[in-house]
Amino acid sequence: MPDQASSPSVETLYYSHHGWLQGWLRRKLGNAFDAADLAQDTFVRVLRGREQGAIREPRAYLTTIANGLVVSHWRRKALEQAWLDTLAVQAEAVVPSLEQRALILETLEEIAALLDGLPTRVREVFLFSQIDGLTYPEIAVRLGITVNVVQKAMTRAMAQCYKALYING
Q: Which of 21, 59, 94, 138 would give a disulfide with 134, using CB separation of 3.0 to 4.6 Å?
């Protein structure tokens, strides 16, 4: 049984570190509203996933959770901006409805989350292949790896896509 005396309650953690965390997020994001949202989301994650007695360094723990949320926040913003940029150059007749836009953005976020679950090298190989259209030898040269490593990375990425589509989906 973990030593609960050494682990702060969620309430204590919140009151002791919420202001600090929100300030840290505000400096990182440059926006008080997003910082407040992500600070709350951080504590929601603490409530959902915290094992009793597991928090020895509260600020490091909160920073780790919040940093993951910041990465997701920036990824989502980048996806939204890329989508808006794409829409800006479309003829008005082919611009999707608000509902279609929301569905497309949701799908893009799911794809980004799937890719975030891959190791960096596997994700890079997958994106160079699928987005940039590079061949395996071109990817190998660009990343300084062998074609065999590229093939294994693509196999892993495709397996992750298959799993997300047919097993988890």
A: 138
Residue pLDDT, tens place only, 112-163: 777 777 888 988 898 888 877 889 999 999 999 999 999 999 999 888 888 7
Answer whether 58's CB lies under 8 Å from 16's CB.
yes
Measured in whole angstroms, the distance separating CA 142 from the mean position of its chain's CA atoms is 25
Beta strands in the chain (DSSP E): none
Whether 54 and 2 have beta carbons less than 8 Å apart is answered as: yes
* Residue position matching structure tokens 């929601």: 44
Do 30 and 38 touch, CB atoms closer than 8 A?
no
Rounded to two decimals, the pTM is 0.54
Which amino acid is residue 165, in one-letter code? L
Instruction: Determine the number of helices (DSSP H) and then strands (DSSP E) in the chain.
Output: 7, 0
d(CA 167, CA 41): 28
Residue 92 token pair: 């008005």
Please state, in angstroms and rounded to a whole number, the distance separating the CA atoms of residues 98 and 92: 13
